[in-house]
Amino acid sequence: MNKTTRSLGSVAVGEKLPPLVIDITAGLIVGGAIASRDFTPVHHEKAAAQAAGLPDIFMNILTSNGLMARFVTDWTGPEATIKRIDVKLGAPNLPGMVMTITGEVAAKDEAAGTVDVSVSGDNNVWGNHMAGMVRVALPRGT
After folding, report:
1. Contact criterion met (CB below 8 Å) for 68 and 134
2. Exposure string for 62-95, b = 16+ CB within 10 A, e = fewer
3. Residue 142: pLDDT above 70?
4. Domains, the chain, ranges and CATH?
5. Which candidate, 124, 71, 70, places its Cα nearest to that of 94?
6. pLDDT tens track for 41-76
7. Beta strand extents in the chain (DSSP E only)
8. Which phi and psi angles does 75 have, rounded to 5°?
9. pTM of the predicted model, to two decimals?
């Protein structure tokens, strides 16, 4: 995690963010669902997930959204403000998988003081779990 905040002037379009590797555990899946008040059984009961056609519980979209936000704010630092997140889910994340999140600065708006970061999260079994964009406001400066 970056303990100092990136400034708008220090960011360039095309800049790649350092990858973030996340072990997908049952605790992460259940904890994310409970923390986001998603009590849908497929996120915490293996039998319910199997009845829905998957071999085990799977991550909810709110947890994926939170991990996407964390990925960007770990890079920007604590004084950045998330303005927008667009996330699209692909393959599910199940316990035992590993997801690697990558990103790149796709756009920079000097007037608004924001950057758009294109983000992708791929698991090691089925590939793309999530893809999208995070818009973040940064302090001005170099």
Report:
1. yes
2. bbbbbbbbebbbebbbeebeeeebebebbbbbbb
3. no
4. 8-137 (3.10.129.10)
5. 124
6. 999 999 999 999 999 999 999 999 999 999 999 999
7. 16-23, 81-89, 98-109, 114-123, 127-137
8. -80, -40
9. 0.94
